[in-house]
C-alpha cells in the first residue's frame, strides 16, 4: 500500500484528508517544527505539507514566526524530500501568496505581489521549491487554495451565521460582489486525484469551487439552511462607509477592514487544475458545499 505522510495532520485540512485517504493509502502523521540546520528522514511515497502558521486575524504574531514556520520549515522539508525515495510532494500554499486584492479573476499567470508576512513567507517557500532541479522520478505540486470551509470549521462564515441566526437584518445589500470559496470535499478530491494521476504535470495550481458566490447570496443560503427569514437592507454605501471609519477608532462591529472583507471581489480560477485532471466540474457545487458547512453550525 502506498504510504502518505501528512504534516499538520491535526488541523482542519489534515484531519479531513486523513479521513478521505485512509481507505486507499497508509496514512502517517509527520510532526515537524523549524529548527536551524535540521534534516528530516522521509520514509514515505507521498509527502503532503500542510503544517505552518496561519494568517493571524488578531495581528499579535511576530513576522519571524511566519518566515520560520512557512518558509524555513518548508525549505527543510523539501530538501529532505529531494534526497529521499519519496515521489510526490504537495505543498499547501495560499492565494494570499500572490494577491491580497483581485481585479478580474485570479489565475496562475499573475505576477505575485503579496502584502502580508503570511503571504510573503508562503511565496518565498514557493520560489524556493521552483528553483530546485527536479529529478524525473519526482512530482511536485504547489496548491493555492482560497478560503477553505467545511463541517466543524466555522471560521469567518460563523460570523455571518450568527448574524442571520439571530434574525439581525443584513445591512450591506447595496454592495454587489463575487468571491471564491473552497469546500473541503473538493480540496480532498483534488489532492487524491493528484496522487493517483501521474500525468498531472508538476507546478502551481489555484484551487477553488467552480462557482463564484456573492455575500448577498451567502446570506440567502444561510437563511435557507437555518429557516430564517432573509431580511436584507440596502443602506447607502456612503453611510456604511462612514460607520466603518468610526469603527477604525472605537470599538464597533464594523470597521474598514471588516467592510472590505465582507464586500470585496476575490474571484479565483480553477480552470488549470480541472484541465490537468480532465474534468469539467468538481464533485461539489459551491452552494452544496456551503450548505453542508452551514448545517454543521446548527448541530
TrEMBL record:
Its EC number is 5.1.3.26. It holds the Pfam family Epimerase. Keywords: Isomerase. It is an enzyme of class 5 (isomerase). SUPFAM superfamilies: NAD(P)-binding Rossmann-fold domains (SSF51735). Residues 5-207 form the NAD-dependent epimerase/dehydratase domain. One of its GO terms (molecular function) is isomerase activity. This is N-acetyl-alpha-D-glucosaminyl-diphospho-ditrans, octacis-undecaprenol 4-epimerase. It comes from Flavobacterium bizetiae. The lineage of its organism: Bacteria, Pseudomonadati, Bacteroidota, Flavobacteriia, Flavobacteriales.
Amino acid at each position: 500500500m502506498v504510504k502518505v505522510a501528512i504534516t499538520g495532520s491535526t488541523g482542519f485540512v489534515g484531519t479531513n484528508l486523513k479521513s478521505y485517504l485512509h481507505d486507499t493509502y497508509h496514512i502517517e502523521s509527520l510532526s515537524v517544527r523549524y529548527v536551524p540546520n535540521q534534516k528530516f528522514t522521509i520514509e514515505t511515497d507521498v509527502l503532503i505539507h500542510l503544517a505552518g502558521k496561519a494568517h493571524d486575524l488578531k495581528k499579535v504574531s511576530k513576522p519571524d514566526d511566519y518566515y520560520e514556520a512557512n518558509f524555513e520549515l518548508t525549505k527543510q522539508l523539501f530538501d529532505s524530500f529531494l534526497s529521499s525515495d519519496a515521489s510526490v510532494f504537495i505543498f499547501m500554499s495560499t492565494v494570499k501568496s500572490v494577491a491580497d486584492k483581485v481585479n478580474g479573476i485570479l489565475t496562475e499567470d499573475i505576477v505575485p505581489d503579496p502584502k502580508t508576512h503570511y503571504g510573503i513567507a508562503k511565496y518565498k517557500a514557493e520560489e524556493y521549491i521552483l528553483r530546485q532541479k527536479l529529478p524525473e522520478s519526482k512530482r511536485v505540486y504547489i496548491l493555492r487554495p482560497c478560503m477553505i470551509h467545511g463541517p466543524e470549521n466555522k471560521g469567518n462564515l460563523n460570523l455571518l451565521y450568527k448574524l442571520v441566526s439571530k434574525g439581525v437584518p443584513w445591512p450591506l445589500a447595496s454592495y454587489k460582489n463575487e468571491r471564491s470559496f473552497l469546500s473541503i470535499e473538493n480540496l480532498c478530491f483534488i489532492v487524491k486525484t493528484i496522487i493517483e494521476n501521474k500525468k498531472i504535470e508538476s507546478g502551481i495550481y489555484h484551487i477553488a469551487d467552480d462557482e463564484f458566490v456573492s455575500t448577498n447570496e451567502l446570506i440567502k443560503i444561510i437563511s435557507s439552511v437555518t429557516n430564517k427569514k432573509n431580511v436584507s437592507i440596502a443602506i447607502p454605501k456612503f453611510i456604511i462607509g462612514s460607520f466603518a471609519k468610526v469603527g477604525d477608532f472605537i470599538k464597533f462591529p464594523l470597521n474598514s477592514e471588516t467592510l472590505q472583507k465582507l464586500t470585496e471581489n476575490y474571484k479565483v480560477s480553477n480552470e488549470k487544475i480541472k484541465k490537468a485532471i480532465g474534468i469539467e466540474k468538481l464533485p461539489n457545487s459551491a452552494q452544496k458545499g456551503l450548505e453542508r458547512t452551514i448545517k454543521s453550525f446548527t448541530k
